[in-house]
Design a protein that fits this description.
- The chain has 108 residues and is an all-alpha fold.
- The protein is 68% helix and 0% strand.
- The protein contains five helices and no strands.
- It has helices spanning 2-11, 17-27, 40-53, 65-77, 83-107.
- Helix 2 runs parallel beside helix 3 (40-53).
- It is globular.
């Protein structure tokens, strides 16, 4: 079942990074985006990285990366975004999460 879901995510991959960024901003409207990023894809990746690392929260009250990931996916799924936008955002969260896991592996 999970493999089928992953296949659908690939099928719904959006070609328009601007729209994915707009979808992210609809759900996380109180987040400011990086001004140093070169394009929409980099802005989105940086925003997701900050979200997953819970960098906008005081260090003593930060949630784990897995908890933040779960809450983000839940928020996306419950949103009124189009299915293709939901899947594209989930794919972006998956990609950034995988990058963070790889970074952790290299550090240890």
């Amino acid at each position: 079942m999970f493999d089928e879901f992953c296949k659908k995510v690939g099928e719904y991959r959006m070609k328009d990074p601007e729209r994915i960024l707009e979808a992210y901003k609809e759900l996380w409207s109180n987040r400011s985006l990086s001004q140093t990023a070169k394009n929409e894809s980099e802005q989105l990746a940086e925003a997701i990285r900050i979200e997953l690392k819970d960098e906008l929260t005081h260090p003593r009250t930060r949630l784990s990366r897995n908890a933040k990931y779960f809450l983000a996916i839940k928020r996306i799924c419950r949103s009124s975004l189009k299915e293709s936008e939901k899947l594209a955002l989930i794919e972006q969260f998956n990609y950034v999460m995988e990058q963070l896991v790889e970074e952790d592996k290299r550090k240890s």
